[in-house]
Each structure stands twice: as structure tokens, then as C-alpha cells.
Specification:
Elements (H helix, E strand, L loop, with lengths): L2 H13 L2 E2 H10 L2 H4 L4 H13 L3 E6 L9 E6 L1 H16 L5 H10 L5 H23 L15 H26 L36
Antiparallel strand pairs: 1-3, 2-3
Helix pairs in contact: 1-2, 1-5, 1-6, 5-6, 7-8
């Protein structure tokens, strides 16, 4: 799964309706250009592709009085909303997601009800433990990696990664069950996007042809 799809949908959803440069600005504000492949070209491409796929509705608005091409604003369709939540749920439960996908899902987890978020994370732990068991069918951690030669270091890495992932996820579950954060239906949601007149302190400042559309 590509993190771009999830991040772009998340940005558009938080605005309700947004043009491409707003979405790009959000992703740079979130630092996604540093921890994912969210570059301007991929962001604008994702917007156009998802509009073609019926996930976003594209609106052409009048150009500014200074001239220039019409700007396109996007809003999520019902199909887009379904896809968005499918991606969030899949990203939270899969044990083998890449760091950028996992980070994107965590940034959007509060769009879910609290109980569902906890349930999805518990499923994640179950899958991590299931995968760890599959590894230890062939590798006994207590005997050390040397039992399999240097290749044993690979399985040693897998086991340690699984243990760390499970421990971290259990900690997150405990924090959420303890009342941390504001989830869907609980009140005023966390605002994670910039208003039109807000300066982005993390903007790259790099121009791209899509910025004017």
C-alpha cells in the first residue's frame, strides 16, 4: 500500500474541500515529505488519479483576477470515504506495513471511534504474535543466532522487531483505553491542517507546476 493515497484522502477529508496546493501544504506540515514518498508530483498525480477513480470529486473554480489557469478543488465522494476508512483500518492491523504507511495511519487514527481503534490495535498485536510464532518454529531465540550461522541474525532481527512492535502497540492501546486523545464522536476533533492564512513553518518552498492548479 502507498502512504500517499491515505495521506491525500486524509487531508482532503479534514478540509472538506481542498485544492492541490493545500493538500501539498498539509503533507509538508505533517513532515510527510521527510518520512514518506510524498513529493509534489506524487501528490498531484494521486489527486488526479483518485478523481478518475471516483474517490474524489473535482471542481474547477474560476481563476484569480490576476489571471492564470482555473484551480481545481477536490472533495471526497462516498466511495472515497469508504476507501479512506478501509485504508486506515488495514494499515492499523497489518503487522508488516512500511513505516510511512504505519505513520500515516497513526496520524489519522482519531477519525475512528475509540473502541474500534483499540480493537484494530489488538488485532495488530495478535497478527504480530502469530508471525513471531511462525519465525520461532524454525529459530529458537534462547539459543542465539549462531545456531543458524550468520543467517540466524536475520531471524534474530525479526524476533526483536516483533517484540518491540508488540510492546509499543500494547502501550498505545493502554494509553487509548486510559482516555488519551479525542476520537470520533467524542467532541471537538484535533485540527491537523492549516487554515488558508496560516504560514507553514515546515514548507519546503520548492515550486511545482501543480501548485497553480
Amino acid at each position: 500500500m502507498s502512504a500517499i493515497r491515505l495521506l491525500v484522502l486524509g487531508s482532503v477529508r479534514q478540509h472538506g474541500r481542498a485544492h492541490g496546493y493545500q493538500v501539498r501544504n498539509d503533507l509538508e506540515y505533517w513532515g510527510a515529505h521527510e518520512w514518506s514518498t510524498a513529493k509534489p508530483g506524487s501528490i498531484y498525480h494521486a489527486l488526479k488519479q483518485m478523481a478518475k477513480q471516483g474517490l474524489l470529486l473535482a471542481h474547477e473554480i474560476a481563476p484569480s483576477t490576476a489571471g492564470g489557469p482555473p484551480r481545481t478543488e477536490y472533495e471526497m465522494t462516498e466511495q472515497g470515504t469508504e476507501e479512506y476508512f478501509r485504508l486506515v483500518r488495514e494499515s492499523l492491523t497489518a503487522y508488516d506495513q512500511k513505516m510511512d504507511v504505519k505513520s500515516a495511519a497513526l496520524g489519522l487514527i482519531v477519525d475512528l471511534p475509540r473502541a474500534e481503534a483499540v480493537s484494530l490495535l489488538k488485532e495488530r498485536v495478535r497478527r504480530i504474535e502469530e508471525w513471531r510464532s511462525a519465525v520461532t518454529d524454525h529459530y529458537v531465540p534462547e539459543e542465539g543466532p549462531e545456531q543458524l550461522g550468520h543467517i540466524g541474525e536475520i531471524m534474530n532481527l525479526w524476533v526483536h522487531t516483533a517484540d518491540a512492535e508488540a510492546e509499543w502497540t500494547q502501550g498505545l492501546i493502554a494509553r487509548i483505553e486510559g482516555g488519551a486523545y479525542t476520537f470520533s464522536g467524542e467532541g471537538e476533533p484535533f485540527v491537523g491542517v492549516l487554515a488558508d492564512d496560516q504560514e507553514n513553518p515546515y514548507a519546503t518552498g520548492e515550486r511545482h507546476p501543480g501548485d497553480d492548479r
